[in-house]
């Protein structure tokens, strides 16, 4: 199937990396400005109210809640993105936009959900974790914003070299390359849909889960011991959304690459990644693709 998009090669440059850094500085500046004008207290109040509601529901005591929230996030976001055709949103590749619900979708989603939940349950049994001590702290909006932003950034950054390795048969053994092949089936090379978010080898998915677990145990704030549970909840909802959006095959006005085009690659770049397999290895952002010369833009 021909693709009616114009693909622009992008030369290696450190400019995108500096753009991400500048964007972070701007966010910090906006945060301080909001605090100066009295918005900080209001935002802190909203964050405190939200956590009090979660705490009263004793979500912090249910150690499987984060995993269930991720499964629920995938279900909600995939339902929304799979039905954008009903609102007249065109597919990026110009193909007909219709419902993607069929038996294969449910098979891949349910098998992934069951495998993921079972794996997390076994992990928790072996690790025997205690209740997160941060659950007894009331988070500020600033803490949530920083922990979530850094968590999403690190998840994408840590998975980047792993994802890149899946596409280098000249450097890695065939068995390793084969783990990522189900995610790049012939269908996804023609028309990318939310189904491809779940269509993956178990080991491929497990690697992504392990990266996410590592990120969820890290907080960039030196004054606190561990990442707040509410930050972890929000992180899971954002990551699941961005993964579904990237594989949706749509170019909606509210997609990340439209809202923040100088930071996010979004569905446009990930569509091209599935079509070619040799460019755009970021799942969310763009800076390392630009830095190492793996970037290619798509202008529809």
Structure, described:
This protein has 300 residues and is mainly α. Helix content is 59%, strand content 3%. It is built from 13 helices and two strands. Strands 1-2 form a two-stranded antiparallel ribbon. Helix 5 (141-166) runs antiparallel to helix 9 (202-216). The two termini are 16 Å apart. 31% of the residues are buried.
Quick gist of this model?
By secondary structure, this protein is mainly α.
Low-confidence stretches: 1-14
Overall number of structural domains: 1
Describe the strand arrangement of the main beta sheet, using strand numbers. Answer: 1-2
What is the first-to-last residue Cα distance?
A: 16 Å
Keywords: Membrane, Transmembrane, Transmembrane helix
Subcellular location: Membrane
Organism: Perkinsus olseni (Perkinsus atlanticus)
Transmembrane segments: 20-43, 63-86, 106-126
Give the helices and strands, then pairings.
Layout: E1 6-9, H1 15-36, H2 39-56, H3 65-82, H4 103-127, H5 141-166, H6 174-178, H7 186-190, H8 195-198, H9 202-216, H10 229-246, H11 256-259, H12 266-276, H13 287-292, E2 296-299
Antiparallel strand pairs: 1-2
Helix pairs in contact: 3-4, 3-10, 5-9, 5-10
Provide key terms for this protein:
iron ion binding; two-stranded antiparallel ribbon; 300 residues; membrane; oxidoreductase activity; 2 strands; Sterol_Desaturase_Related; mainly alpha; single chain; 13 helices; transmembrane helix
